[in-house]
Sequence to fold (161 residues):
Amino acid sequence: AKVAPAYHAPVVASPAYHAPVVKVAAPAYHAPVVKVAAPAYHAPAPAYKPAPYVEEKGAPEPYTYEYAVADDYSKAAFNAGETSDANGVVSGSYSVALPDGRTQNVKYTADHYNGYVADVTYEGVPVYPEAKAYAQHQGLCPSPCLSCLRDKAMTIYLLCF
Fold:
């Protein structure tokens, strides 16, 4: 029997590479140097106050005014008038058309002894619009509402079973 020749892979020496050794010193951290100046004290600002405002009480000056508004478009209707005498007594009146169709009339006086005293009266009978009955939703709205969606879901549910 013949012996087959033996082949061996050649031994190749490869160079060895090593990382260079670098010695690095640890970083040195120092606290920052903060220089604090001594507090500076200044003389306070001069404390002065302006003289208080005192309104001089003069004698009451009589006056009178009146105005009225009547707008057919908005149905706004109101008026007012007031007078004052030389003793400071004020008297006046005003009236306002209320939304319920009535008119509120107020006559008043005001002075330094009694304060504001008003007499309020009403003219007319209140009229309120008739309340519309609740209409059940018919599912005809352009964008689905909860009622439409609920009705549609119930219909689909019933058709599936």
Notes: The first helix runs from residue 146 to 160.
